[in-house]
Design brief:
elongated; Porin; 7% helix
Length: 180
Amino acid sequence: MKKLGLLTLLIMMFSNVSAAETSGLMMINADFGGDTLVDITYTDGSTADIDAGRGITLGGGVNWNLSDDFILQTTAAWKFTTIPQASNGDLTWTRIPLEAIAYYNIEKLRIGAGVSYHMSNRLKGTGFASGATQDFDNALGTVVGFEYLMTPGMSINVRYTMISYTPAGTSFEVDGNSIG
């Protein structure tokens, strides 16, 4: 039922897109949160961890200006986090988020909500961390955002993503919720 509701939302969001004015966008995000996927202790006693929601996101997309009050923002990105590299291996958590967010404009402020679909979710270790390698199923979540337009071409955005990751072949869920 949840998937049917999200599909209906996407169809409604895209119904007026064909006649909309568009503009491109580039994004850089830093996100924090989620369950800890792995803790690492280095030989010098220092530690590092990787949280499921944490990462740097680099991507781009299109703003579809549906009216003076509404825009649809669609993006594709690469999200990653890593531990400080050790001389005998490293560990990286990567995923590819695809998002569609409908925003309502209030002067220089946009308030929005939409869907986030994460693909190719993978924790990959090399060397000492090779045993931590784990693929995760694709994941569907929701996202809410608040965006302040500093200029017509630049904005600052605060967003909260609600998503869970499932290690491939299991039914266990990992909280990947994040704020960024």
